[in-house]
Write a structure and sequence with these properties.
heterodimer; A: 328 residues; alpha/beta; Rossmann fold; 2 domains; 19% strand; B: alpha/beta; six-stranded parallel sheet; two-stranded antiparallel sheet; 13 helices
Chain lengths: 328, 327
């Protein structure tokens, strides 16, 4: 039987719904998750199904959304807290970084924080400077929290289940641009399709160059690979899925095969996913390096509103193709 | 609920004296560089508040969380002074394995969810812990101490508002010791009647309590617990108290700038002196017993110091990387 196709938002919704049925301790909290049915419709129908106890609308109060989820998790619940968008999670940086990520270590393992913080992420649609970020690397900077962002429906489903079941705090970001994007769901319909935390995925094997990316970058990489294959260039695409834990094994193995790398990130270039991967590759694979490592990132500006300026600032498949051609 | 018989009252006295002995010893150890961490916020002067509030808790059922001035809370709850002192010194036998230090004491067994060092950072945690109590219908409440300084930041607003919206079982106690670090309360708060902020959140304003009077504190928090147990949600209490060792012991300017004010509090409002006077009025034969208690607490603290100094420092890679994540 062919696997079902679902848009990513529905895959996320299904994972969350099943986990709430599986474990009474799991509940959702956040702005507009209940009566409004979820800003991105991931919690559509939840308040009718689970009631207000487990589907908790909050005031527009990101500091307490973050911090109360930490406290509830410490005390034994398994909150899935939603930040409507990652831009608003900046207001909760202290709760996430100083509390969620540090409490397990600071008290030497006495407490655990099994909380999932979901947030829509990404650029585009002329959302303008303050609503246009993909800042996962900021959060992945700090030990103590895991950070991930899926690129497709099946991964979204398996990664969210894994996150809810894990005992560590996890920032789970969801590209707004992928919510409506349909994709095949896993064949496994047991309800226990759980992807391992910190494992990347070779989306496409190739021999000439490795593209390392995650989330929406995977789509750009695939389109670029199709174009490049017309010129006889064989591209390997690695979807890291997790910024922390970072699957360095899969990176090094791929690079040692292709000897060339392009890193594609929707986020900004300075102190970034790309910087980190480039540093890791040169430290561990120096003898395998046949060309400089290239990075395709968003432009180093606050995102402008106007349509063409915005397109100039964002990465896309053409920019990935151009970067590959520079090192082939 | 604790019954206010002689045994209970004497135990409160013991807790307060233990805390004072412990804190003044910490001060000494700090000046001798035997406690080396830069931050050390002592509870001296505020003993009646912790002791009187905690006396209302069913330890292990009810919850408590506080800011960085946390030693007195840990001691009143019954944590072993040896492990607390070892934590001060960053030793392996410290209550947080030496990884937390003075500001991050905690005890899972006592539902003491920790001392926290970001001003206001623990307030949403208190809300979340209270949510668990409500969610699982445990009948427990949370005592959350709040510095007067913290009552001016965003965490306070968001946490107390959420507690109001969700009727969370939290007893919020503002510890108004007159200063947020070095800034006097009236220079930092638009309305110095901090308890009145409860009105804005739809929670019960329980007014002020004399934080130096342990009996008053006990009764106020008891009344608060009755309110919370009745399912009516949070309350806010403002306790007026004073800190004897400044914001932190490294703040030398404090002693001279506020010398007169400090002397006044020590002279006339010391919580231990006041309570001892009360006990001696009530029980004419008690002085010897109280003297013995003081001597015992000194010995307990001496033993804690000895224990801590004999505990090794964590110094391996394994210890450094342990407990970053749950494996």
């Amino acid at each position: 039987m062919a696997a079902r196709n679902l848009p990513m938002r529905e895959a996320l919704r299904l994972a969350l719904l099943e986990e709430m049925h599986r474990d009474e301790r799991v509940f959702v909290m956040g702005e507009e998750v209940g009566v409004w049915q979820g800003t991105h419709r991931v919690t559509r129908g939840f308040i009718e199904e689970f009631g207000e106890k487990r589907v908790r609308d909050t005031p527009i109060s990101e500091m307490v959304i973050g911090g109360a989820a930490v406290g509830a998790a410490m005390a034994g619940l398994r909150p899935v807290a939603e930040f409507m968008t990652i831009n608003f999670a900046f207001l909760a940086l202290d709760a996430l970084i100083n509390h969620a990520a540090k409490i397990h270590y600071m008290f030497d393992g006495m407490f655990t924080v099994p909380a999932v913080f979901r947030a829509a992420t990404g650029w585009g649609d002329q959302a303008t400077a303050t609503h246009s970020h993909m800042p996962e690397p900021i959060f992945a900077h700090f030990p103590g929290m895991y950070v991930c962002s899926p690129s497709n429906s099946a991964d979204a489903y398996g990664m969210l289940k894994a996150s809810i079941r894990d005992d560590n705090p996890i920032l789970f970001t969801e590209s707004i641009g992928l919510y409506s994007h349909p994709g095949p769901m896993p064949e496994d319909e047991s309800g226990d399709y759980v992807l391992p935390i910190g494992k990347g995925n070779v989306v496409q094997e190739g021999t000439d160059v490795s593209i390392f990316t995650y989330a929406r970058g995977v789509e750009w990489a695939k389109r670029a690979a199709r174009t490049l294959s017309e010129d006889g260039v064989s591209v390997e695409i690695v979807d890291l899925r997790w910024l922390r834990p970072l699957d360095t094994d899969i990176i090094f193995e791929s690079f040692r095969k292709t000897n060339r790398a392009v890193i594609v990130e929707e986020s900004l270039p300075m102190y970034s996913f790309g910087s980190e991967l480039a540093a890791q590759i040169q430290e561990h694979c120096f003898d395998y390096m046949d060309a400089p490592i290239k990075r395709v990132s968003a432009a180093d500006v606050p995102l402008p509103y106007s349509k063409y300026l915005e397109l100039m600032a964002l990465p896309d498949a053409d920019k990935v193709v151009a970067a590959v051609k520079e090192i082939i | 609920m604790a019954r206010l018989n002689r045994e209970t009252l004497v135990d409160w006295y013991r807790q307060m004296v233990l805390t004072r002995e412990f804190e003044e010893t910490c001060y000494q150890l700090y000046t001798e560089k035997r406690i080396t961490g830069v931050y050390l916020h002592l509870y001296s002067g505020q003993e009646a508040l912790g002791t009187g509030a905690i006396a209302n808790m069913e330890i292990g059922k009810d919850h408590i969380i506080t800011a960085y001035r946390d030693h007195g809370i840990a001691l009143c709850l019954g944590m072993d002074p040896k492990n607390i002192m070892a934590e001060m010194m960053g030793r392996v036998d410290g209550s947080s394995g030496g990884k937390g230090g003075s500001m991050h004491l905690a005890s899972r067994k006592h539902n003491f969810w920790g001392g926290y060092a970001i001003v206001g950072g623990h307030l949403p945690l208190a809300a979340g812990i209270a949510l668990e109590a409500q969610y699982n219908e445990t009948g427990a409440f949370v005592i959350s101490f709040v510095g007067d300084g913290a009552s001016n930041n965003g965490y306070f607003h968001e946490s107390l508002n959420l507690a109001g919206v969700w009727d969370l079982p939290v007893i919020w106690i503002i510890v108004n010791n007159g200063f947020g670090m070095g800034t006097a309360t009236d220079r930092a708060a638009g309305n110095v009647n901090l308890h009145e902020r409860a009105i804005g959140y739809g929670i019960k304003d329980m007014g002020r309590v004399d934080g130096q009077d342990i009996l008053a504190v006990y009764e106020k928090v008891n009344e608060a617990a009755q309110h919370v147990w009745s399912g009516k949600g949070s309350v806010l209490i403002e306790a007026i108290t004073y800190r004897y060792r400044g914001h932190g012991v490294s703040d030398k300017q404090y002693d001279s700038a506020f010398a007169e004010e400090l002397a006044e509090w020590k002279e006339n409002k010391d919580p231990i002196v006041l309570f001892r006077r009360h006990l001696e009025d009530k029980y004419k034969d008690i002085s010897g017993e109280l003297d013995d208690i003081v001597a015992e607490q000194k010995k307990i603290v001496e033993e804690a110091v000895e224990f801590a100094e004999n505990s090794p420092f964590p110094d391996t890679e394994e210890q450094l990387y342990a407990n970053v994540y749950v494996e």
